[in-house]
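Transposase-associated domain-containing protein: structure tokens wanted.
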Amino acid sequence: NDEIFGLFQAAEFMDEEFATKADLREIAEGEDMKEDEFLAKLADAETPYIQVVFNDLLETLPEMLPEDNVLHTSLYEVKKFLKSFDMGYQKIHACVNDCCLFRKKYKKLEKCPKCKASRWKTNIHNGEEKKGVPQKVLRYFPIIPRLKRMFRSEEMAKDLRWHYSNKSDDGKLRHPVDSVTWDQMNERYPAFAAEERNVRLGLSTDGFNPFNMKNTKYSCWPVLLVNYNLPPDLCMKKENIMLTLLIPGPKQPGNSLDVYLEPLIEDLDHLWKNGELTYDAFSKSTFNLKAMLLWTISDFPAYGNLVAAQ
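Answer:
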């Protein structure tokens, strides 16, 4: 929960009601480097003692092990090692009025080409424009490397084939593979269906208030992907549901949702039309991974926004 809340803070999910915390916001934006350093030292001072003990333990353990051991000798090295498993995300500047994303042909613009709103924030103290500090930032977690990594695990690569040989034979619906839609798509796209490793996805999105305060009007929109190749006891587990977009507030995107879906749709389109060369740890071979977006999952208001986006 702390990690997720940190993401929201990093995404500048601060309501106007939090204007009294403007100094902290400016620090986070890198405007006052000295204050940044001071806060970093305060954070170090508040580091739990257990981390210090763990670091000392890592320095001591190698002396008890054979000389050719490869154990990391500091907490810093352990964190650096674990960081290599992090897939990361992209920060994409967005128009404050949800008109466009500042990417591709708009990447170098400083004003929205549609509403002419500034790309940058304004200092609430002196009214000056803060160059380099965007008013709105979309977080995109690229799906292609994450799907490819799933096949790098032998167990997961095996589970991703589950749908191919576990269709219900008694007419009962136990999994999306037993649905009419699944059969119809297989008949319409037989080449796609013939490759059991091709992925079928569902998209879900809705707004919520990350601050959990009744007096704060704020709507953040996460966009999630569900992998229907997996068996029913796995496909809806939180570790298998992919967060792909984090759309900032304070207002809901409404019919402008398509603006924020743009990078995700581009990757889905690539996976559908071209595919991606992927290593399969289960079969010890490579194949061309493709993906299909089967459904969207949402309540009726969000469904209206998704329909408009399509």
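The chain is about 35% helix and 20% strand. The longest strand covers residues 199-205.

Cheers.
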